[in-house]
Amino acid sequence: MGPLHHTYDAQDGIIYTSLYVDSQIVKWDYKNLKVLDRVNVHYNIGHLDSMEGKSAKPKGKYALALDKLSIDRFNPVGPLHPQNHQLIDIGGPKMELIYDLPIPLGEPHDVISIAADKLKPQVTYPMGTNSRTGKQHEAMTLAGQERVERKGNEVKIYGTLIRSHINPEHVTVNKGDKVTFYLTNLERAQDETHGFAVSGYNVHASVEPGKTVAVTFTADEEGVFPYYCTEFCSALHLEMMGYLYVKDPKKKYESVKELKLQKMSKEQLESEYKKVIATNKATDDVIQSVVKFLKDKNYAKYPKVKSLVEDALDQYGKIGEVKAKADESYKKGDVNGAILWEYQVWQYMVKTADVGLRAKNNLAKELATPMKPAAQKGEEAYLKGGCNGCHVIGQVSSGPDLTGVLSRHENAEKWVFDFIKNPASKYEEDYVKTMINYFNLRMPNQHMNDQEIKDIIEYLKWIDENAGLF
Predict the structure, then answer these.
(1) Which of 152, 201, 449, 466 is most exposed by smallest CB count within 10 Å?
(2) Predicted confidence (pLDDT) per residue in 91-140, tens digit
(3) Is residue 153 classed as helix, strand or coil in its secondary structure?
(4) pLDDT digit string, tens, across residues 4-46
(5) What is the model's pTM?
(6) Is 298 left (phi over 0), alpha (psi -120 to 50) or beta?
(7) Is 55 a domain residue?
(8) Domain range enclosing 163
(9) Residue that is last in its domain, among 223, 253, 283
(10) Same domain for 275 and 313?
């Protein structure tokens, strides 16, 4: 009673029909009008499927019953019972129920099975893919290209995601601005999806490895709004966040640091003053080392580098006047005021250092031996592969410095090739075990193809040739 739906067997003429009232699947020969078998299901089956049973070439072997009721099949959890999917072996002369699967959803309304060997998906997107078009997204952003661009009341943020960091971490906009975040997931390890949400603004995106997404909203409420990864991606997942500052351009905001200083004792203020002086001295030392490098290498011969240096020097040139005010305040005994001026000095220094380091990196590339085409492709693969999420050329970061990596191993090029191709194959080697223990990270499989790996090795050779510049 109650025949509803049909699915087919690999054997010609054999069909399976769901019986809603009888709570059964019946197997019968529709060419000879003969019932062959019945099996009880639990309960009130609607749709059903056999393996590829709705195609021109059914596979047989198993059938799936999509039952609407599951009375007494599972532990009671309340008035709302789960639906029940039941797997039935149809490979023998008699059908046999072999598995129950509770489904916590609404009425199960049809399924289609497909053989697993027919699934050939990409495990990651090509870097910067727009999943809506399948082509490269116009706003693809690689590491080092992160930026914020403003045009009128439109603000566009070009950012990156990689375990466990969202870059940029701080974005300031005006109330009423139209804000667009373009985000590229730099991961090349499969299944390392990141999410992105902005608290209070009802925006969310799923960003699979290699994908670039865009989220747009109007910043119509002032305040500080965290944005963060919503997909548990690593042990440091909770640190993967940043802050959107929405300010009303018509208001003047009090400095939190200034309010904090007002509550300090004389001794605490003196300690804070010494601390900020030391910080500024350390920052200035970095600036001076960069300046020496730039001057020694005749930066003025390179227009792009010269422009950056002029920008940096413009910021640095503002320090003298502010520093004089800081010193004058301190001489008068106004330690609070001196600290606030020193904070301003530090702001100019940070801007100087940021632009100066970019100038240094650009000059280093100008001075380095020209890249061969393979090395250029290797650098592109290195960046698109998200390698610089852990490796920073010239210094230790979340992973070891890759300068000199081709001299650390016997038959180094083959070793590096094999490691990039299949990192897990090296996990038990003493050297790699030491690196894993030190950095508390394992090199993931970035699914590079053989040519990309060969090109990366050429890029590493270029780095070693120019090691003194980085």
Answers:
(1) 152
(2) 998 999 999 999 887 777 889 999 999 998 888 899 999 999 999 999 99
(3) coil
(4) 999 999 999 999 999 999 999 999 999 999 999 999 999 999 9
(5) 0.61
(6) left
(7) yes
(8) 129-253
(9) 253
(10) yes
